[in-house]
Amino acid sequence: MPARFSPNGELNVAADPSDLPAEVAGKIVSSGSMVRCTNLHLDRMGIASTRKGSSKVSATQLSTPIWRIVEMGGARYEFAGTIIYRNETSIATGLTSARWSAVKYNAYNVVTQAIFALNGTDRKRIEGSSVYEWGIAPPSAAPTVVGQGAFYAYTHDWEKTLGHAPSNSFKFGTTRNGYTCTYDWEQAEVSYDSETRRHMWFFEIASSYAATSRIGVKYTYVRKSGSTVECESNPSAPAYIEAGSGIYVTWVASSDSQVTHVRLYRTLASGAQFLYSEEYAVGTLTAACTKADGSLGTTVATDHDRPPLGTAVIGPDFGGYLFILKDNLLYFCKPNQPEYWPALYYIEVSPPQDAGAGLGLVNGQVYYETRSEVYLIQGTGYQSFFPLRQAAKTGCLGIDGVLGIKGQGLLHIASDGLWAFTGTDDISITNPNFRPIFTGTARGSIPAATSSNMGNSWLLQHKGKLYFGFPEAGATYPTDVLVTDIATRRAVHYEYGKAFSSICVDETNDRILAGDSVGYVWILENASDTDDGGSAISFDWESMEASDQVRRYFPRYAKWDCEVGGTATGQIVLNDAVKQSHTLSGSRNTRKRHVTHCNGNRLRARITGTGAISIFAAEVE
Q1: What are the contacts of 266-273 at 24+ separation with CB within 8 A?
Q2: Residue 249: enclosing H or E segment and its boundaries?
Q3: 588's torsion region: left (phi>0), alpha (psi -120 to 50) or beta?
């Protein structure tokens, strides 16, 4: 009985090869089902062709592993070991070696997009080649405030006192009326009694004043772009001065390189609200509050907290919120303001013993996942966000194991494979065809996954395909990739001969970037590459099994319909043993190849080799 096999069905390693679908027309058995399809794509119906190749972006090797790759504005940002790189050039060092999470975003009043990234210990904002803190920490100390009153201003003959002309910054101390005072010379000289003199001021320093007659002063650190305030810290602790004595303020310099200005805020006499008074460029450490009460501005903000030291960040949602996962809590920023995270902007989602493992975003809605549960975060903002546990069968194992796809739902990786939560049901995507792989059994050319490191698995969507990378037994990072056509749901297996610890879409250049476990950045699925960094691509295709337990197969010849650009071998497999091998070459050379001295109840066809190939069909009779 002739058997005709073609690659127009599904790859299935879970079922017995003889149980895969087949059709019988007359005396011909035909099937498109496969038990092997490694490093072959099925982009053209009925044809299995060698996948696209891969190549290193550069010869520069970074620290290992590369935890995260983010593309922004055509530049690559790699988080590897304790260093952040831009196009493989170090831009920040001395960080914590941990898995990073990152988003690209900009506040409503900021023109330039930035990367906001964290890893549980470090929080960074990246613009161009500059790495800053994410948000601005408030001043560590209260200001020093002294009185600057005209009541103590008078002229003085500096020649008699000093014996020389003082500089404009000359100061010395004395005591007057029980207060410690300093002198400071004015810029202008005046003529008095035919002698040149200068004005001198007293500045009071007192330990306390009556609350009914005092003015409070605070200051903040500010980052400005032109005249726009992009970010401002929470204020310092207050300092107080007696009302009517004038206000001269000294503050602590910021060690944060992003700070460009300092702002002073003060109260009215006996007031409680701190109102905007003056702004000074960074570098100035002492200045006066000179604005009159009627000219003071807005109240100082006290909700400009920095983000928490979480492990995952996602967003924005439709409301412009970013979300950060920390333990069993979900934090969120002020809408459209990714650097302001008010202290009360969080909700407790899961029990402490079932902490969050990952976050997903589908159609603008946020999902929070533990290892066993999925929660939908309902609501539109502060005081309305609420977690609602979903009817999902499982959760996720890691921050890169969650991916929302429009029309498909929330995809999430569990220990037994890939699931898709649609909002009403949780559907196993890999279990029907690949269940043995995720229960510790290698099948065909696909090795068994290692359950202990499944948390390092990742998901990626690009050009209508879903890429699911998982580590094989004994590996730490993903070594194998199941690639599924989202439209047809047909899956194949890719193997690159290396482990990829991170992956991303380079949106500017419309390509896939991957970071491997030894520190190189690769371009995957590159149409211009016919090999993997100089190594030929090995492929493996095998049909389902034609089985007849009543009558035996006595194959006499085989036909191989292929276009071979590399090396290829066709094999006749009977009862799990290779009975005949044929060297294949040329373009669709379908002449008969003799098969001798073999028979069996179960028949399969297999094609292996390296390089370019397109497989159309194999026929055995």
Answers
A1: 266/215, 266/216, 266/217, 266/218, 266/296, 267/215, 267/216, 267/217, 268/215, 268/293, 268/296, 269/213, 269/214, 269/215, 269/243, 269/244, 270/211, 270/212, 270/213, 270/214, 270/243, 271/215, 271/216, 273/299
A2: strand 248-250
A3: left
How far does CA 132 lie from the centroid of its chain?
Answer: 17
Q: Where are the beta strands (DSSP E) in 399-537?
A: 402-405, 409-414, 417-421, 426-428, 458-462, 465-470, 480-485, 491-495, 500-506, 511-516, 521-526
Q: Alpha-carbon distance 228 to 109, whole Å?
A: 8
Of 589, 596, 531, 594, the closest CA to residue 562 belongs to 589
At which residue do the structure tokens 């476990």 appear?
A: 517
In three state form, how does the secondary structure of 465-488 look? EEEEEECECCCCCCCEEEEEECCC
Query: Is the backbone of residue 333 left (phi > 0), alpha (psi -120 to 50) or beta?
Result: beta
DSSP secondary structure letter of residue 550: S
What does the alpha-carbon distance between residue 88 and residue 78 come to, in Å, rounded to a whole number? Answer: 7
Residue 72 DSSP class: E
Three-state secondary-structure class, residue 172: coil
**Both structure tokens of 364:** 């603008």
Q: Within 13 Å and on the Cβ side, how many CA atoms surround 536?
A: 12
pLDDT tens, residue by residue, 554-579 = 888 999 999 999 999 999 999 989 99
490 alpha-carbon distance from chain centroid: 28
Q: Letter for the amino acid at 354?
A: D
Averaged pLDDT of the chain: 89
**For residue 180, how far is the Cα from the chain centroid?**
55
Token look-up 């009558």 returns 551
Rounded CA separation 548/555 (Å)? 13
pLDDT (mean) for 145-173:
47
Q: At which residue do the structure tokens 């310099």 appear? A: 253
CA distances from 340 to 331, 333, 334, 343, 450 (A): 11, 6, 6, 9, 40
Is this prediction's pTM over 0.85?
A: yes
CA dihedral 430, 431, 435, 440 (to 10 degrees): 70
- Residue 435 φ/ψ, nearest 5 degrees: -55, -45
342: amino acid identity, one letter = P
